[in-house]
Queue: 4 jobs
Job 1
Amino acid sequence: MPAMVRKLAQRLGMLQHSFVGGVHPNMHKLTADIAIEECDIAPVHVLPMKQHIGEICSPLVGVGDLVLRGQKIARSEGYLSVPVHAPTSGRVVKIEEHTIPHPSGMGLPSIFIESDGDDKNDESRAPISDWINTDPTQLRERARMCGLAGLGGAVFPTFIKLVQDKRFPIETVVLNGIECEPYLTNDHRLMLEHAEEILEGMAIIMHMVGADSGIIAVEDNKQDAADTMQQALDARSDMENVVVLVLPTRYPQGSEKQLIYTLTGREVPAGKLPMHIGVLCQNVGTTKALYDAVVLGKPLTERTVTVSGDALPNPTNLRVRLGTPVRTLFARQGLEDFSDIQIVHGGPMMGERLKNPDFPVVKSSTGLLAMSVQAMKAAHTVEQPCIRCGHCSEACPVSLVPNLLADQCRSDQFEKAAQYDLFDCIECGACSYVCPSNIPLVHYFRYGKGQLALQRREDSFAEASRKRSEARDARIEREKAEKAARRTRVRQTHAPKTDEAKAETAAETGGGAKPAAEATVADSKTVESKD
Amino acid sequence: MTGLLYALASLGAFALVAGLVLAIAQKVFHIEGDPMVEKLDALLPQTQCGQCGYPGCKPYAVAVASSEAEVNHCVPGGERTMLQIADLMGVEPKDLEAEPAAPMLAFVREDECIGCTLCIKACPVDAIIGAPKQYHTVVADHCTGCNLCVEPCPVDCIDMLMKPELIEHWSWPLPDTKRAQLGHERREQHAGHG
């Protein structure tokens, strides 16, 4: 299809598809019209050693060290990992465990940096303004060294996706500006305020993966953002094959696989990545961060966060340094008493519900919501029996049967649930949202997934232990056999000592095994005859 | 009379052929070991701890396969393993003898270790490394927490510690609703009665 025709068809919505299921929650975009505000630098920043999906980092600095903003303070230890950088200049005061926004309420080793107020930058990374003539692998290394991870909330290390693989050439780059979660408006504001930077970032991505077309996807409740992006796009001459598409608002359209299906009609197979069908999807926040990393040479040290919720006096959008204590952000927006408050990290549909605000802003912090406990209770009343209405199956964007899966998880039939594709569940919460019986379906799936993962871990540990145990038994057997063989050999060579003359003759005749054996036989005979 | 001879001869010949086929089949389709023992062994947690009264998981599997031992002696395996074994053996499940303890990990206090290698010899899964007169240490990822290294240590420098809870291994509990607990209990009762 010629590019012009395709572009036209895309604009007319002829190439659009519709993912199955989905829901239309009340969007509560309280902060859509509030410009992003700069947040003051906190006196102490807390940087957990893992803020991405993958392997944990190890600290590169010690207590007392002076650091600059953007200086790498923790090194990634594995492939699926990105380093952590200092969010401001200051001194490392301690390295110890601190709670992170995680449903367990557990913590991770974290570096505490006391700000010196100067906010001096680490200038060691040179800007790459001529990225169009730069080798993509060098840009990819830049993305990795700058600690980029998916800022839409999943925090998958970005550099892994930014690769040219001959087996899976990327045709289309999708810029994800959907932001389908209620309350969240940070991507919306970024598109309004930083359209040029985002487009430049998208151009860098297209250059890096060698894609020739691109789609900027925005939901129709953000028409102003779509218009801004379109204007910025028209102002550029080098992005002819990129279109802005406005999609009807529906949750969870912003989920990568659902969005790709809507835009291309291609489904990402279970257990595969979008690159396997020639698509790359990036969030607008990540794209802006890539621009900062490449063109400005700035590592990921800040992000935009929507601070909102029905119990927050002054909701807003903030540009926050990573590691800023969440309590200070809420205090800034007029909330100090958390006794009747439920905090949500992320969006209300998929975010983590947390008991207290003693955790820092991390790379995955899209939103920080303060909800009144009453409102949350109204949404989660007593679980009633399933009435088989089928609403959950209709709402499921991956065509699962949630009520059946929940029954299986509740009664510990995890293997069966896995057969019914429990692991394809994206935990979007659409089923729980529509359930008239208030069944916490997603919670059951999380329980089931966790238990199954535990069983599989135990099984593989048992298998490894069995192998080692068998290897040990085999070794002991072998050593025993060797010892026995050595003993007989020693006995044979030393046996003739009882009869020195014969030993000498045995030695003279060659001292081999056979004569020795004969000698032993002869010995025993002589002993017998003596008796 | 000839009829009888014919009958004897034909039946005899048939018996010979059948015997030959069986003999060949036994050679060709020979199975190493007892398949039941293998299956049972695969269900056991392989801690090799000896809490069942047998020197390891395999010996216990052998004992269960020959109906010499009950199905409920494996303590670390817990309810799940007991039910699986009972299922495989086709017998009624029995109550566990003891609740499985929290997973433990052996730890050698290296300052006090004299390098006697006794714990290395005692470890059923080769999870302790070291050499004579050198410090020994436990490979935490391989330790099954079986406790067998503690007893032989002449200077008592091995501690059994709680296995650290990793955030990656944390999993969601069952929802805190009455129905969740009820459904869960029903399933357990159901499983308990075969």
Job 2
Amino acid sequence: MGTQTILEMKNIEKEYFGNKVLKGVNLTVKPGEIHALLGENGAGKSTLMNILFGMPVIHSTGGFNGEIIFDGAPVSLKSPKEAMDLGIGMVHQEFMLIPGFTITENIKLNREITKHNPFSRVMGEKLKTLDTEQMNKDARKALDTLGIGIDEWMKVAGLPVGYMQFVEIAREIDKSNMKLLVFDEPTAVLAESEADTLLAAMKKIAASGIAILFITHRLDEVMSTADQVTILRDGELVATMKKEETTVMQLAELMVGRKVEKLGKEKKENTQQEEIIMEIRNLKVGMPGEEVKGIDLEIYQGEIIGLGGLAGQGKIGIANGIMGLYPAEGEVLLKGKKIQLNNPKASLNSHLAFVSEDRRGVGLLLDTSIELNIVITAMQAQKKFLKRFGFFDQMDGKATREHALKMIEDLDIRCRGPQQITRRLSGGNQQKVCIARALTLEPNILFVSEPTRGIDIGAKKLVLDLLVKLNRELGMTIVMTSSELGELRSICDRIAIITEGKIECILEPEASDADFGLAMAGEYKKLRSKEAVIS
Amino acid sequence: MSEMNVKIETKVIQKPDYRKKAKQILLENIVPILFIIICLIGVKLAKQPPLYILNELVARVARNSFIVLALIIPVLAGMGLNFAIVLGAMAGQIAIIAVTHWKITGLAGLLTTVLLCTPFAIIFGYLTGKLLNKTKGQEMITSMILGFFANGLYQLLFLFLVGTIIPMKNPVLVLSAGVGIKNTIDLTAVKYSLDNIFKLSMTKTMIAFGVLCVAVMIVHLAYRVFIKKSKPQNMIKYLVYTGIFAAIGTVGLMIMNTKSVYNMVLLPIVTLVVIGLLCLFNVFIVKTKLGQEFRTVGQDMHIAKVSGIHVDKVRVIAIIISTVLAAWGQIIFLQNIGTLNTYGSHEQVGMFAAAALLIGGASVTKATIGHALMGTILLHTLFIVSPQAGKNLLGSAEIGEYFRSFVAYGVIGVSLGLHAWKHQVQSKKKTS
């Protein structure tokens, strides 16, 4: 047929439980083209890719609207297997490699070349022997295509991360019918030189006629590699353009967009009390997936400081590290006094309180009553709400009840009473219980991670209002970590953007969209310093 | 050619940390090494004639290896130690009771038993597999508890249902009240039916084995060089193996000519051949598509699923194979013992097989044929010498008895603990 486009996704819409995550997105990819897909976390990129791959999660939540035309024919993809059969391949962000296998075995995973033996003729296909020689040859060929000099018989365990990525790619291009290859943030885990090799390999693959969909946050890679750029924001298609027609600045601006809504919070006029309450020096946290690689930060008394950035860059790790939940090193000083790291109890005793991002996992005892949830940490760490009988301390029921009732009233927790179990509460009210527990510790600093994740819009505003109220009326210092830049900009005094485990820059909430976009893409320092030199 | 390069390269890399490597090998095999030492001490203390120990050992290894080998495939498929081989043993016993009832004797009886137990074992294995798929991550404890549960049903069947619902009139088997099977059954019909087909003295076996293996090596090499025209990749390996086999043959020949007492050790050749075939089967299956799927699932279930492998199905197949092998293994065990303890023979099967495998140096994630055979030899050496050693050392044979059950359970516990500990260390390494 000589199709002009390999993939066309028309007017794709998708709802998750009444929440529209894709609002009529169009995407067109031509053969041999490198097409970059840009967007913040939650912009709908992964949902779009899940639809393309027919992931079960799409179909178990009611399917989607719209049309997919692949290679000239409309298709309805029901499972990843179908997508693979059609010739759509995916290079996963987290590697789908088996460490104990050789590179060949990984490349040929479940596509092994087999030959007959006396048993297989009788007992069926499954007992065919593996043709290791042929498999090695094929693997070699795929690796050569990528220009990688690693030996195919080596075990994947112990390979440098960069090579693992190439093994993953080799697996995809080894499939003979490959027509479209999706790269999901392939350079996120790579060092710069490795990333360059990868981008060169991508161009090679594209030159052989395979179309490439390239999901990334790094704008310079887009500029150096892509032919076309599509930008999504909040489930909407913002722009599709040729690379030549755009600039890094424009891309950054389009990615973030203006969506800030002030929460009736006027800028604090009294800037005299710039007293440092906490000093973080070279903090490193080994939280898997959210590694922090050395952060210096000063937190002022009475401010709301926001920690923003894309998922996986390390912003979540900071609070978790300070609270001793993940192995950390470095120095954290509270009012000039050192806090012992890697010891949650020490952190709690220093009157630091933490509202975890994992509300239902770490945050709450789901099958326990509201009142117990509110007092439990204070009970454990500070021995409050206890009647002391030597070894046999007992919970002080009366004091607990009084305190819980007060909290329920103060924070406006909608419930049937202090004894209701927290599992039955709505997300927003669960979050308020978490905050209530943190407040019970009478904290110096309140760490709040992703306070609005998984909460409906109305409740989001209530939670944010509550944080502002605590800050304004009680003068509480709040460190808020959030993936939603909009909400950080609406309530924070300063926002530190974290990229690759480090602080990219600290911005005022009023800073421009482009600045935020650049910071989140990790380009702020580079570009701004250049400008400074030029001007 | 590339293979040769590999060798050179790895050697170059290895040389600097040769000591480290040796240390690592020592650490990895610490369990078997420890047990070899314990066994040697036991042998010394027991002061039993070596001929007796050897005779006993041959009998026990021939009797027990098969069932230990049955554990390997589930480990390969990442399901840990399949304690539910108890169900396979039950299938074997159900068949053997039926065959004793029908009075089919000799080899015919044995073959009937094998045929009869297989469908039972397949059904039991299928159900076990289904259950284990529902409890991923807790396969070992599930299979263990499943064994206890199945034991209850087994007792119900033979204590109550036989003679009431299942009509059976056989005064030899059924209790005098007419309901329930007797506690011990004499298996005269199938006793030694496999072992006694063909027995050969140990020395002759060694000669035959040595000659056969050397012949196979040469033919294989010739096939490689002349018919397939490919260069032998690893000449040294060939030579070493051929040398070992030749040495075995020569030693056999030498002993035979010295009129030593060891000429009296008789080996049940057919049983050993059957065990050898099972080993070959295990080797074979690893090299097939199915084997690759076992390994993939064993290494990472999620990745296996994403690459289109039917994970649940593969796991069920692994358990079915294991259960069927266990049933056959129990039959081999019983034909050698000669009496069936109706309500007890199967109970400890899972425990002792697992203990043997672990003593051989296996872990819950890695097990090989070598581990299984080595473990069986060590565990049973210990069993043979420990009563006498206990008596000589402390004046009481019971101490030795205690010691061996202590060892069996202890080694399982320690091995599981070690496994968890390694896991923790690894995950810690990852984060820091």
Job 3
Amino acid sequence: MSSQQRTKIISVGDEETSLGFSLAGITDSYTVEPDKASSILRKLAEDSELAILIITEEVANTNKDLLTRIKLNPYPVIVEVPGKKAYFEAAEDKIRALIKMALGIDLEM
Amino acid sequence: MSSTEFGKVNATRMELLNTRAKIRLAQKGHDLLKEKMDALVIELYAIKDEVHQAQKKIEKELAIAYQSLAKGEMIIGPDKIRDLAQYAPAVLEIRTETISIMGVKSPRFIVKEVEKEGEGIFYGLTSSSAQLDRAIMYFRKTLKTLMVIAEKMTLLEKLASEINKTKRRVNALNYILLPRLRQTATFIASTLEEQERETFSRLKRVKAILESKKA
């Protein structure tokens, strides 16, 4: 059990995402291009106080391998959020893919 | 003796008993694991809907939030909003915990709303707009829904992974270990039976010889 509590919430995404979540009062937010996001993601993965990492779908898609590795650790928990267009492109597919792999069933959500 | 896939096995009664014990054990393990898998699948089904609902909710909340933000930017100007964002207080305090579902560990976030007096609105009347209020409200809502997704999506992924692992073990027991064990048991049993017949027919011959000697 970690003796230090994780309390931070940080977002990595485009300008609107950063602005929006800053207004909501999260700990910190970073605005980067998806293909330049890897170094900040790596740094944040090492932050021992970070509980939740919010990233846009674009950032997620461009950094799949890095994120898979980060997800091997219990924290930080990574959540995907749609970019400024405000709808999920592939979130539903992700769930379907997971279930298909686990159960062999392709579900209509 | 002869080799099965286990290598050389002595065809003795002890071995037969041992093998049968192993079969019972493997069968029990297999049944337990299958039960575990069923339970995990039920959990998975329950969670997937919750995650899906939360994602749809976020889409709605974010749509309103971004709209209001855009309108607010038009009224006050984006720079002003960026300045204000600096002073936005944290409205959620989170603590992390680990919960265990059917042996699968997953994070849980304990969210406390920090609503200090007067801090809800952190900017003056003149320097803002109702659109901004709305934007902030909806971004906060989104954040809360995001906590839910963070928890549940992680659980979903972990459940799926555990189901895969368990499924492989169930199959390994069912299609590899148990058949081998059963084959071994059959082999031993038939060898023993063969030996008995051999012994029996030997005894018969010896008896016949003794009888003829007597005569």
Job 4
Amino acid sequence: MSAGESAHTPRRPGEISFATRRTLFLVSALVLAGVMVWALGGVPSFGDYHGVYGLVLNHVAVPERHATNVITAVNFDYRGFDTLGEEFILFAAVLGLALILREGRDEEEGPPDDDASGRRVVGASNAVRLITVLLIGPTVVLAGYVIVHGPITPGGGFQGGVIAATALLFVYLGGEYLTLRRVRPLPAVEITKAAGAGAFVLIGAGGLIFGTAFLANFLPLGTAGDVFSAGTMQPLSVAVGLEVTGGFVLILSEFLDQTLVVRRRGGAR
Amino acid sequence: MTALQVAALVVVAVGALAVVAARDPLRQAIVASFYGLSLGVLFFTFAAPDVALSSIVIGSVALPTIILLALAKISDRDS
């Protein structure tokens, strides 16, 4: 440490002093605030919308596609190809996560913390057990409802898929880690996830074979408002639901395994 | 803008500040969970129920859960 520096806050070579940093911040904040105020003066008034694409879709989605939820019509039909890309972003992200959180060379799987030998498992209280047992069923039903009714009411494969995955959390909260392992056979989860991603592509290819273009609707349209009204949107929503359920169950499982099972060799974690 | 929308905006603004103000990561995860829920209510009052659902499932369920599990892993390693 050189003689000129304070003993309490040793400054590394090249480090900017606090006063300089504060000046830099104040000047940038002032400039940013000015630009923000200037920009706010030019925004359209509240509720003022001139997006032609959105206005057109609001008028044509029900007559053309028999889908009362225009957002699902955009996601799974008008812009279905974008959703295909998003599907594979999620797919790649979950794969990457599983790869990073795999068992490292200096790690090994031990008995789960819940099941350490000689240790009495406290477990969840009866109140928590009761609530989770009561909630698991309705959660799965709600997830199925949100996925299947995607073309009619708010929701769809993505939202329903995450809701389904939270049922797994209830199993962990109310039961034990070992119960969780029994209701969550990982190969089956991986197959579900892959099947969902594959089904989306296959339904898209079906449009190529039976219709005019990739992801074009080739199923009969029903009465608008019915569950099976919007042609291929329904199976596409289910496909996304399967993939998202599988993906999120896999993510949660990897994190739970990291916390409860994987530890460094020699006992320490 | 309706009173409900203004109220939702205020709750979200206060919630965002609360997330930043919570210094303990454990408390922060719980506060962030409620913040995700309030964000969902905000989207709902602005007639965007699809986005509201996504926000609730990610912001108030998936993200806090992963933060909590990561915290559990880290604190195990420290002790």
